[in-house]
Hints:
Blueprint: H1 4-11, H2 16-37, H3 44-58, H4 63-89, H5 95-104, H6 110-138, H7 144-151
Amino acid sequence: xxxxxxxxxxxxxxxxxxxxxxxxxxxxxxxxxxxxxxxxxxxxxxxxxxxxxxxxxxxxxxxxxxxxxxxxxxxxxxxxxxxxxxxxxxxxxxxxxxxxxxxxxxxxxxxxxxxxxxxxxxxxxxxxxxxxxxxxxxxxxxxxxxxxxxxxxxxxx
Length: 157
């Protein structure tokens, strides 16, 4: 099985700058999520230092990001807003809210669709969207029930 980075290169037609950008954004969002969720032991100072360094130094040095910032900024903003809404909705007693929270938490993958659109157009982005989703869900992926129980601090027993 290919690594996630190998898949990024495949989806982005070998564009290493685009793959590096999406991989970096994934690292940023994972560290930020770990800081908020507090669901596993991490060194919070180191995680925050990484988030700050990645966003304030590494991200702005990425050529793909700099060249395409006007196309990427709205997608990034929507990802951040959806992630925040997901964290609010996951605490809701309304099952519709929690279902949306489960879906919205992973909208970060839409960044890959946007990058694919920039690189190869609409049809390429459509294909990447389907392939990306399948690749990510075939990896270690928790079901809605597993996620909800874990987020609510309950056990399966």
